[in-house]
Amino acid sequence: MSFRPQDLYDFAEEMMKSNPLPEMRIRTAINRAYYAAYHDCKDWYDALPDTGHVPVADERKGTHAKFFAKLENPGDRLTTEQKAESIRRGRRLRRMHADRVTADYHQNSNVSQGSAAILMTDARNILAGRI
Questions:
Q1: How far is residue 31's CA from residue 20's CA, in Å, rounded to a whole number?
Q2: Structural domains in the chain (count)
Q3: ω into residue 5 within 30 of 0, thus cis?
């Protein structure tokens, strides 16, 4: 069974519907919203006529960091608009990733409903092409 980035985002929204809102639901929403944005950016990137490059300083980093670097260092054959959007997508995803890492791996860190709301807005804007 396959899924669309929007499906992940819709699940994230469902996680935020609870009163009171348990922290585990907030953490799950952050994770799903991040991955909705990540997959949307990946689909967008894969459709481009030229790939970005990973600077030497980022070559030993993880898969996600390398992907952000490719977005932030777009290919030369892209239009000015495509380059600008690629850079914006990379920067936005990089910021969202930090929140996702905190939500997933730092169980002793507080994760707030406010930070989830910001990440959800960022994800919604990426999926809507408003970056």
A1: 19
A2: 1
A3: no
